Automatic annotation (TrEMBL):
GO molecular function: DNA-binding transcription factor activity; sequence-specific DNA binding
Name of the molecule in the record: AraC family transcriptional regulator
Pfam family for this entry, one: PAS_4
PANTHER family in UniProt: ARAC-FAMILY TRANSCRIPTIONAL REGULATOR, HTH-TYPE TRANSCRIPTIONAL ACTIVATOR RHAS
Length: 250
DNA sequence: GCCATAATTCAGGTAGTCCA
DNA sequence: TGGACTACCTGAATTATGGC
């Protein structure tokens, strides 16, 4: 029995569509949402309703971020939604301002993924935002860090030095290390590696590029360094990972 | 809590092997 | 023959520790 048939058998028994937001209602530090192709909420958890000062979460269904959030936040969220809905981009670990309780702004770690129909069209997106707690009241550390994290996520294909990133954030190496660990539970170099491996996984399953080409485009000096790192992180060599995902998708 | 420094661990590069 | 993988050496990054 393949994983696909196990899934198909399970879903065929459901009395109603699988609803995840109820379990996410219990996470008071995490906002969960599903949106349609126009960026309108179709599923939200109670945490998002609480943040927006809305008693019933169903009142959010059909609305967009531009209608619900202050302009300073809503426009940024709408731009990110567009990237996912029009280009199928994956947004991973984006450090960004979000709305906490009582309309207070705080920092969160955002994830977004496109949702596809049977005929491979993007019909919506699924996402969540997990609260972070600022090491100082003003959140200045996160503001500087968010720029450095964006820099890493945009430049992981080139050489990145941890001391240089710490300087960019205006922090000592020690402070930078502690902040990154607080957010990601990873060291700075582990975070850089995770960013690279995430992108490599995407290219292995969504492109025909050779292992060597993927190694190069993910910032590894050569294919051997990539293979070693990839195997250490995922437990599989790049080719085995690609073959494994080909089997599961067929 | 932060920094400096020494010890330790880890990652990258080179060179080589294996295999289709 | 070219792509994928591995062993080994070296330098970089991380961790531990002591002092402020």
């Amino acid at each position: 029995m393949t994983p696909a048939t196990i899934q198909a058998e399970f879903f065929s028994k459901l009395r109603q569509p699988l609803v995840c937001e109820e379990i996410f209602d219990t996470l008071t530090d995490t906002v969960f949402f599903v949106k349609d192709a126009l960026g309108r909420y179709v599923v939200v958890n109670q945490t998002l309703a609480d943040r927006l000062g809305v008693e019933n979460k169903d009142d959010l269904i059909g609305l967009t971020v531009l209608q619900l959030f202050p302009k300073s936040l809503g426009e940024g969220f709408a731009n990110e939604d567009r990237l996912v809905l029009t280009k199928g981009e994956h947004i991973t670990d984006r450090l960004t301002k979000h709305l906490y309780r009582n309309h207070r702004e705080g920092w969160s770690l955002l994830q977004r993924r496109p949702i596809y129909s049977d005929d491979d069209k993007i019909i919506g997106l699924i996402g969540l935002a997990k609260d972070l707690h600022a090491p100082n009241e003003s959140g200045e550390d996160f503001r500087a860090l968010s720029e450095v994290i964006s820099h890493v996520q945009a430049n992981f294909s080139s050489a990145l030095k941890v001391p240089e990133l710490a300087r960019m954030a205006g922090l000592s190496s020690y402070q930078f290390d502690q902040r990154i660990r607080k957010i990601f539970q990873l060291s700075p170099s582990q975070f850089i590696n995770k960013t690279r491996v995430d992108h490599a996984c995407y290219l292995l399953t969504n492109s025909e590029q050779s292992i060597a080409d993927i190694a190069s485009s993910c910032g590894y000096a050569d294919q051997s360094a990539f293979t070693r790192q990839f195997r250490q992180t995922t437990g599989l060599t790049p080719r085995a990972y690609r073959q494994d995902h080909e089997h599961h998708s067929h």
